[in-house]
Amino acid sequence: MRPNGGFSAGENAGCEARAKPEDPRMLLAPFSLADVSPSTRARRSAQRPAAAPPGRVPPWLVSWAVLGTLGVLFVPGLRGGGLLGATLPFWLCAAPLLDMAWLTRHRWLAALRRRARVRAA
Questions:
Q1: CA 17 to CA 114: how far, in whole Å?
Q2: Same domain, 106 and 67
Q3: What does the alpha-carbon distance between residue 46 and residue 65 come to, in Å, rounded to a whole number?
Q4: N or C: which end of the chain has fewer CB within 10 A?
Q5: Which of 70, 69, 66, 48 is nearest to 57 (CA)?
Q6: Same domain for 115 and 65
Q7: For residue 82, what are the domain limits?
């Protein structure tokens, strides 16, 4: 190591040579479903909660959007500023609204297509 804290070219070359793994399999996680019995898989899938149907907005997301919007409207400290910029209003208002738009995209895209067909006819 050099006196100023840096490494010489020879020391860097030695570090790079030691950093390469000898066996590429060591980078893979030891994950396999082969050792899990079919009864264990069935029990795990039965315990897993059912996913929300497509196009349905979860209630917690609506709560997040409503409470975040009310917070930004009525609490001046949540509106951001020089230090935060607009990141806090984004996460409180825009992010949940974007999530809701994404989850309901099939519904409103179909409505836009219908409206475009009506106007074209």
A1: 62
A2: yes
A3: 32
A4: C
A5: 66
A6: yes
A7: 59-120
